[in-house]
Amino acid sequence: MIAIIDYDAGNIRSVEKAIEALGENAVVTRDSNQILKADKVILPGVGAFGDAMNRLHEYNLVDTIHEVVERDKPFLGICLGLQLMFESSDETLGVKGLGLLPGKILRIPDCEGLKIPHMGWNSLDIKENQPLFKGVPNQSYVYFVHSYYLKADNEEDVAATTEYSTHIHASVAHGNIFACQFHPEKSGRVGLKILKNFIEL
């Protein structure tokens, strides 16, 4: 069973539907016991960094997420979920993230001819031997919606990158921790393959 953390962030239902389309049981919950009983845990979401961290604290989910990671359960952040996993974000200065991995969330620099937020399909430069991208061809296209991007401190944590105004760390993997800045649940067959790979970890 896969727990999808519910903290009143957008896009949670579409992740649930994608998991169910792959034949897996998904439960959308903010109940700590249910989350800790799950085989795997997903932190999806769209919205503002500061608001999201406030809600995670309000629902007592910060310690729960840390415990999931400490118990070595596979944990996947999607879009805002990826950003929350790191230390801080330019979007809400002074608000600490979950700090699961070292790195910062920066605003995508303005660039002539490119719109921000970045909304659309971009190709991924995928590193070799990444469990999340098993069977996914390099330069596959996935769907992004974001104005801020990850700059991870440790290059070895980066599983895939993309280019949009700057060099973007589009996916990370570290032990049992995985994350995607893009939306696998909105990325067609490629996205479903990535989710299937997570389910099969």
Summarize the structure in words.
- There is one protein chain.
- The chain is of the alpha/beta class and 201 residues long.
- It has a single domain, classed as Rossmann fold (3-Layer(aba) Sandwich), CATH 3.40.50.880.
- Helix content is 26%, strand content 30%.
- The chain is built from 6 helices and 13 strands.
- The protein has helices at 12-21, 32-37, 49-58, 62-70, 80-84, 188-199; strands at residues 2-5, 26-29, 40-43, 75-78, 88-89, 103-107, 118-123, 125-126, 141-146, 148-152, 158-163, 167-174, 177-180.
- It has an 8-stranded mixed sheet. Strands 5-6-10 form a 3-stranded mixed sheet. A two-stranded antiparallel ribbon has the order 7-9.
- A hairpin with a 2-residue loop joins strand 12 (167-174) and strand 13.
- The protein is globular, with a radius of gyration of 15 Å.
- The two termini are 13 Å apart.
- The model has no long low-confidence stretch (mean pLDDT 97).
Write out key terms for the chains shown.
Rossmann fold, alpha/beta, 6 helices, globular, 8-stranded mixed beta sheet
Short structural description:
The chain is α/β, with parallel strands linked by helices. The protein is 26% helix and 30% strand.
